[in-house]
Every structure is written in structure tokens, then in C-alpha cells.
């Protein structure tokens, strides 16, 4: 005797069920949103603000911009300072996004980034907020020296060519070049950071001694160009980010000068 299917057993009237894994992914992905926003508000505004101020201070009285090496040094300074200021928010971000993957009895259950920062300082001490600060600053030094200096240099080159004026098209082209340079410079640093974070213990010893050892072993066993494996998707992510960052920065700088410095 054939069994009769009930309306809710898979027929047209059945309500679509949402997978618990989908719900966990959606809400888990939003768990660190406040921390991610705070990190951008601290790290990005600090590095861009310091770079802009130092760049203007070191520009000659006749309008001559600083040389490339000085631009790179300004970028390093801005990047290191921004990374230091943004580290607490990054620590909170890492913990909040990882919380959902922990067993229920080990979850910290931070409500938002401010709750996370207060609890970390209270329960583990204020210095914990800057845990991992040194490698974060080292990466920021490389990335910002490449990104900020290459953008300024590219923009200067495009303006000097006579084919561009100081407008959004020029900013777009300069930032795309900057994204390309930044990708090439930062990928080896990211490989070192990732390998060290995920390294195994072999016969009771760590797989790598330090960052230089990672680079030597990767080049020796995987080839020199493996340092830039995945270049295209990396640039596809970093390129638009760099374009939006510098276009908004240029427009806000122009608005600030027009509204507050023109008088």
C-alpha cells in the first residue's frame, strides 16, 4: 500500500528550511562587524592622516614634493603608527570572528567590540590588547611604504606627463598602479605571516625558525615565483580597495581645503 505524502513532507506546501550551518555562517560573519569597522576607523584614518600631514610638511616651499625614498619613509612611519593604534581592534576582531568555531564552553561571548576591549583589559590586562603588535607593525611598514609612496609617485608621474589633470581619472589610474605595486610587495610578507601562524611542530621543533627561514625554504622547495602564487585574485581584491581608499581621500582633502582653508 502506497504511503500518502503529507503536505509538509516535501510537497509544494513544504516550508523551506534554513540550514543551521547557513544561519551560523551568516551571523558568525557579522559577529566581528563592529570590530572590523573600529579597526578601519583607527588604523586607516591614522595612517592616511599621518601620511598626508607629513607629506605636506615635507613638500618644498615652491611646491616640490618629497623624493620617492622620503615618501617611502613617510609611508613606513604612517603604517607603523596606524598599526599600533589599530592593534586592539584587530585583537578583538580576531577573537570575535573565531568565537563561533570554539566549543560552547570555551566561547567568550563578546557582545560588541567595546565589550570585547573592556573585558580583555579587565580579565587579561591592558598589554594583551597589543598582543602581536610587532609583526602587525612590520607588515604595515611594508604595505604602506609600497602603497602610499607608489600612489604619490604614480600621481606625480601622471600629472607631469601632461595627459592628466588632478581629477578622479588621475586618482583612479594612480591608485590602480599603487594596488599593483602593493600586491607585489605585500604577498611575500603575507606568506611569511601565514606560514608562521600555521606552522607545525616537527620532532618537537617549530617548522620555521623565523620569517627569513620561511622565505628561504619557500624559494628553495617551491620556487621563487611561488611567493606570488595567487597574484591575480589578490590584486582583484586589493586593487578596488586601493582605488576607493585614495579616491575618497582625495575628495575629502579637497572638500576640507575648500571649506576650512580657503578663507
From TrEMBL:
Locations listed in the record: Membrane
GO biological process: lipid transport
GO molecular function, one term: antiporter activity
Alphabetical list of SUPFAM superfamilies matching this protein: Mitochondrial carrier (SSF103506)
Family according to the record: Belongs to the mitochondrial carrier (TC 2.A.29) family.
Pfam families assigned to the protein according to its UniProt record, in alphabetical order: Mito_carr (PF00153)
GO annotations of cellular component type: membrane
Protein name: Mitochondrial 2-oxoglutarate/malate carrier protein
Membrane topology: Multi-pass membrane protein
Subunit structure comment from the entry: Interacts with SMIM26.
Catalysed reaction, written as an equation: (S)-malate(in) + 2-oxoglutarate(out) = (S)-malate(out) + 2-oxoglutarate(in); succinate(in) + 2-oxoglutarate(out) = succinate(out) + 2-oxoglutarate(in); maleate(in) + 2-oxoglutarate(out) = maleate(out) + 2-oxoglutarate(in); malonate(in) + 2-oxoglutarate(out) = malonate(out) + 2-oxoglutarate(in)
Amino acid at each position: 500500500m502506497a504511503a500518502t505524502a503529507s503536505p509538509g513532507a516535501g510537497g509544494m506546501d513544504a516550508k523551506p528550511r534554513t540550514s543551521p550551518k547557513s544561519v551560523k555562517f551568516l551571523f558568525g560573519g557579522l559577529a566581528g562587524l563592529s570590530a572590523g569597522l573600529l579597526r578601519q576607523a583607527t588604523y586607516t584614518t591614522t595612517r592616511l592622516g599621518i601620511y598626508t600631514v607629513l607629506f605636506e610638511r615635507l613638500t618644498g616651499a615652491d611646491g616640490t614634493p618629497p623624493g620617492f625614498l622620503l615618501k617611502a619613509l613617510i609611508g613606513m612611519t604612517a603604517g607603523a603608527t596606524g598599526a599600533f593604534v589599530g592593534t586592539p581592534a584587530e585583537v578583538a576582531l580576531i577573537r570575535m570572528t573565531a568565537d563561533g568555531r570554539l566549543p560552547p564552553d570555551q566561547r567568550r561571548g563578546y557582545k560588541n567590540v567595546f565589550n570585547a576591549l573592556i573585558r580583555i583589559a579587565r580579565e587579561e590586562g591592558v598589554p594583551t590588547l597589543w598582543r602581536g603588535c610587532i609583526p602587525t607593525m612590520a607588515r604595515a611598514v611594508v604595505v604602506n611604504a609600497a602603497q602610499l609612496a607608489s600612489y604619490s609617485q604614480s600621481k606625480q608621474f601622471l600629472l607631469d606627463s601632461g595627459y592628466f589633470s588632478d581629477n578622479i581619472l588621475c586618482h583612479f589610474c594612480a591608485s590602480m598602479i599603487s594596488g599593483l605595486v602593493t600586491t607585489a610587495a605585500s604577498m611575500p610578507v603575507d606568506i611569511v605571516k601565514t606560514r608562521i601562524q600555521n606552522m607545525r611542530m616537527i620532532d618537537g621543533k617549530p617548522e620555521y625558525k623565523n620569517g627569513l627561514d620561511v622565505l628561504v625554504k619557500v624559494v628553495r622547495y617551491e620556487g621563487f615565483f611561488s611567493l606570488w602564487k595567487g597574484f591575480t585574485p589578490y590584486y582583484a581584491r586589493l586593487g578596488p580597495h586601493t582605488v576607493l581608499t585614495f579616491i575618497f581621500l582625495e575628495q575629502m582633502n579637497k572638500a576640507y581645503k575648500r571649506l576650512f582653508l580657503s578663507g
